């Protein structure tokens, strides 16, 4: 008999979810060509393994990702999936980006379309993808709170916001979790954001735990990105930065080998080991990558292991910022 997949609870007010979640973005957008059938099969494999937390966004593939998830959930018990949806990012017909809209009327409009595309009567966790500087966070959270009261949303989350915004939002309605980038080479939340979330009882869903594949152990210096892959604009994947970052991966590989684990498993397990209030999201697009990632949920890192990882990949060792400068400037969490 297989053991049940481990679980964690998102903050003081959030749901119980699998200790690892599946991020669906790459199945529709931003990482070059993807195989829709394989994406659906990967979601099925995750659900069958006991993964419950499924993360999407209404702007991933301009709605395609939600439709893919709807197809994947057909014939499945809806309560076995905790569906997290981000909203607010504006796209154009060419796939470009044109800002954010978190006005209350827009919040409810986005939610109506997401419910229809997902084919469900509720969204488990609903969150703005980014802070809209033109709209007070109190107004945005207040609008989602009305959706909670109406039964269309069960929990409120946030994404990439700073400590001050977390406090203002929590004063309006309990926040289940903050979705934010956190990995061995993206540790900015440790200074203020993570302590504030813990003080307020807000969980963390960590995305980018493999830094978009960079620290997965599968990346190589000569890999050529295909299609409209936004990593072509990422400073960490460019020139000398890439060379430096891949040297960190090799140092991490040495530690992983002592655990009979892969680099990816070790990097994911490190994030999970930073606290029971943290749920790593893995962006696996294929079943083999999913199988590798899920093994991290049962990989135990001892204090000695964590010290060795810290020595291999020091907190400030990464070369290049996690986003290009214009996108970094767009993040409330970086202010």
Structure description:
The chain is an alpha/beta fold. The chain has a single domain, classed as NADP-dependent oxidoreductase domain (TIM Barrel, Alpha-Beta Barrel), CATH 3.20.20.100. It is built from 11 helices and 12 strands. The strands form 3 sheets. It has an 8-stranded parallel barrel with strand order 3-4-5-8-9-10-11-12, surrounded by 5 helices. Strand 8 (123-128), helix 4 (137-150) and strand 9 (153-159) form a beta-alpha-beta unit. Helix 3 packs across helix 4, helix 7 packs across helix 8 and helix 7 runs antiparallel to helix 10 (303-312). The longest helix has 20 residues, at 239-258. It starts with 6 loop residues before the first strand and ends in a 7-residue tail after the last helix. The mean pLDDT is 95.
Highlighted features:
335 residues, alpha/beta, TIM Barrel, eight-stranded parallel beta barrel, two-stranded antiparallel sheet, 11 helices, 36% helix, Aldo-Keto_reductase
């Amino acid at each position: 008999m297989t053991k049940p997949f481990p679980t964690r609870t998102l903050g003081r007010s959030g749901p119980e979810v699998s200790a690892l979640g599946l991020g669906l973005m790459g199945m529709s957008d931003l990482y070059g060509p993807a195989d829709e059938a394989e994406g659906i099969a990967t979601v099925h494999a995750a659900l069958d393994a006991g993964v419950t937390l499924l993360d999407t966004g209404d702007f991933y593939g301009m709605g395609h990702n939600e439709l893919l998830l709807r197809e994947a959930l057909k014939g499945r018990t809806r309560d076995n999936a905790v569906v997290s949806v981000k909203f607010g990012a504006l796209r154009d017909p060419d796939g470009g980006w044109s800002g954010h809209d978190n006005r209350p009327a827009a919040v409810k409009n986005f939610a109506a379309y997401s419910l229809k595309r997902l084919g469900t009567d509720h969204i488990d966790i609903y969150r703005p993808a980014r802070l809209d500087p033109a709209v007070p966070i109190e107004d945005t959270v207040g609008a989602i709170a009305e959706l909670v009261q109406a039964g269309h949303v069960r929990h409120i989350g946030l994404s990439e916001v700073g400590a001050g915004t977390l406090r203002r939002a929590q004063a309006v309605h309990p926040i289940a979790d903050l979705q934010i980038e956190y990995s061995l080479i993206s540790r900015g939340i440790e200074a203020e954001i993570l302590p504030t979330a813990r003080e307020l009882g807000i969980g963390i869903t960590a995305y980018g735990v493999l830094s978009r594949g960079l620290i997965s152990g599968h990346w190589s210096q000569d890999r050529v990105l295909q299609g409209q892959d936004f990593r072509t604009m990422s400073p960490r994947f460019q020139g000398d930065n890439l060379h430096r970052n891949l040297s960190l991966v090799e140092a991490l590989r040495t530690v992983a080998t002592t655990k009979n684990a892969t680099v990816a498993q070790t990097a994911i397990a490190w994030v999970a080991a930073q606290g029971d209030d943290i749920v790593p999201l893995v962006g696996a697009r294929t079943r083999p990558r999913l199988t590798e990632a899920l093994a991290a949920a049962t990989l135990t890192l001892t204090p000695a292991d964590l010290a060795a990882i810290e020595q291999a990949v020091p907190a400030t060792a990464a070369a290049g910022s996690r986003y290009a400068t214009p996108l970094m400037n767009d993040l409330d969490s970086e202010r």
